[in-house]
Amino acid sequence: MRLVVTGGAGFIGSNFVRHVLATHPDDRVVNLDRLTYAGNPANLADVERDARYSFVKGDICDGALVRDVIRDADAVVNFAACSHVDRSLVEPDEFLRTDIFGVHTLLEAVRELKVPRFVQISTDEVYGSVERGSSRETDPLRPTNPYSASKAGGDHLALAYWSTYRVPSLITRSSNNFGPYQYPEKVIPLFITNALEDRPLPLYGDGRNVRDWLYVLDNCAAIDLVLRKGKDGEVYNIGGGHEVENIVLTREILRLTRKPETLIQPVKDRPGHDRRYAVDSRKVHQLGWAPKHPFGRALEATVDWYREHAAWWTPLKSGELRTWYEQQYGAHSGRGETP
Ligand code: NAD
Ligand code: TYD
After folding, report:
1. C-alpha closest to that of 233 among 125, 161, 138
2. Where are the domains of the chain?
3. Helix crossing, 295-308 with 310-318: angle to 10°?
4. 60 CB under 6 A from ligand 1?
5. How far apart are CA 165 and CA 158, in angstroms?
6. Which residue is closest in CA terms to ligand 1's atom 5?
7. H/E element holding 325?
8. Residue 137 pLDDT > 80, yes or no?
9. What's the CATH code, domain 185-211+241-274+293-329?
10. Which residues are catalytic?
11. For the domain 2-177+213-238, what is the CATH code?
12. By alpha-carbon position, which residue is closest to atom 28 of ligand 1?
């Protein structure tokens, strides 16, 4: 298969590119990525010399470039996105541009060039907060912040292009991922690296919000299955099946890093903070997927990875991320010091 992966220099995309090259010897992968703060060529340094892999620096909103890159592709898998809720609260424009207009640009190019498959990587956050039970693929979307609203926009477009033009779109909506190469602004890598540096762990609100954690390699396997076996025009939820309150997760990270609970720093809640996400994943299970990495062992492996890869995350935390926190919270605020 000739695959174009967009956003392949980010967290999930880079794990997916590595997964494809390792499990499908005949596949070729072109990675189109704009290299925003979250895109890092170092995430794929180990496959750079693989003749089956190539990289193009560029924007998914650039229609001419997108057409050039996807011309002979068998499939496009779109990971490119602005992906952090907290950033979407202060700079929503870029979220709307990439997560809606970028998807539209890809869909137009896929339609024109008749690419046989388009997989849109989405999120359980488009369903909004779920107090009880779990979201089915057919449930209405009720996003509550600019990130999830823009992702929902992308999803609606992908399905509209299937209904209207028969553009062969499929969507995956996964729960929260964790694992190697995740930018240390998201809660698990932020808390692990802060703990390793003896810095406070800024826990939002009462710490009782619930996320369903999915190891990134399990998500990659599910996306790969949907790419090869999924049905056009369908949505597939991918849940880790491991719901945890943030406070419990935080204590577990402190236990694994052997740091004291006094590092927990309760801070003001995120505005509009969704209480809980949970998806019903029966459909992707029926396709033949099940998560293979139990949460406890995967979290331990993730802590070990960050412990052993300080050279990867230290420049990120002292550079762009520190500047961002300082702009948002001030150089001398408690949170300004957290990265
Ligand atoms: P990430 O922020 O780590 O990576 C995003 C990548 O997209 C980066 O490499 C960035 O440079 C690239 N990018 C951003 N804008 C671009 C543009 N306009 N053109 C080209 N490239 C661009 O994100 P991630 O955590 O790997 O998430 C990947 C996808 O999975 C996203 O669509 C996200 O919504 C979805 N998702 C993430 C999670 C999670 O827990 N991280 C959970 C569910 C769904
Ligand atoms: P995050 O990793 O940003 O993912 P999302 O908001 O997309 O689910 O946050 C996961 C949970 O952790 C969420 O409930 C917010 C909380 N959180 C904190 O308590 N402190 C933090 O510094 C961050 C980044 C998140």
Report:
1. 161
2. 2-177+213-238, 185-211+241-274+293-329
3. 70
4. yes
5. 10
6. 10
7. helix 320-329
8. yes
9. 3.90.25.10
10. 124-125, 147
11. 3.40.50.720
12. 79
